[in-house]
## 1
Amino acid sequence: MNLSAPTQIVFIITVVIAVIALLMGLGVFSLGAISAFWVMTLAYVILAVACLLRGA
């Protein structure tokens, strides 16, 4: 399996999601019942899928 770098837009989206999770972990704001752990996990999964897919 060949890995490829994600596109710049996917990388920026995952960084924004990760910053949101960081702010949630610090208690700046909340997204209801969703914990910061799951938001950070979502960012990581999106980035991992983008690395697995060519041209994503």
## 2
Amino acid sequence: MIRYLISDSMKQVMIVRTDLKMRKGKIAAQCCHGSIGAYKKSPADKVRKWENEAYAKVILKVQTLEELTALKKVADEKGIANYLVVDAGRTQIPTSSVTVLALGPDEDDIIDEVTGDLKLL
């Protein structure tokens, strides 16, 4: 479980599907796509605060698409900026595979409401 004591700290979280068996480089690329996608959708005030703190990023994991889409639904309900990465299928995995859900940046405690029970990748 990922929890922080300082409630006004900011972070961005990428959640990776492990059932796709992506290699490390593929995971890194997918997380980069997610990070940029969620960043572009985030409110400017949250981006500025995150940029002033050190750009904290955390990579977590889920085992299935169903888990990932359930987390996206919760993030949407809570108003957390998010981005679902859908792969083009040029390398390791089939076209249109959903690989990563990126959240934020947002306050740690807000993101933890969605991801607090997940494990680090």
## 3
Amino acid sequence: MSDDFNMSMRKFLKQVGVTSQQAIEDAMRSAGADATDGKEFTAKVVLTVDGLDMEHVVTGQIKGRT
């Protein structure tokens, strides 16, 4: 793949990672300590790309702060 492709891919994935972490942290703060401390949450990301016939799903666990 080309350098331009790799750079645009990395830029997009970095944006996804940073903004997703911020959104999760904001949601945890909004829910409050009583709702999140020590609990485990299932997270799911669904990635689609317009113009390509693809759907990529990632699931995982996020532990609330203790």
## 4
Amino acid sequence: MNASTEEQPSSSLDGLKWGIIVLLLIAAIGGNYYYDQESVLLRAVGVVVAVGIAGLVAMQTFKGRSAVAFAKESRTEVRKVVWPTRQEAIQTTGIVLVVTLLMSLLLWGLDSVLFWLVGLITGMKVL
């Protein structure tokens, strides 16, 4: 069995932490509805704070630490990407547009021929 399929160790408190996260998110949603007479700005700040605290708690779990590590590795990989120049992007976009136009004309023509053929075979003329 390789490392990717083995059960990963997790803290015994991870379940409690996920429960706290769910309660924080429910409280954020409920508070937003309960205080609907308050300023939208205050409610938005409250929701953002509650979601931020839930995120901080989530980062303390095994899955949260794994997600943060994945995000860091992804950022490193994105830096390695060789992005196309403006000229290459414009040329590629033009090619995609031309091929799309040609394929749409081809499919329209094929559809028209098949429609005519079915009408010829069945003797029905549909406008």
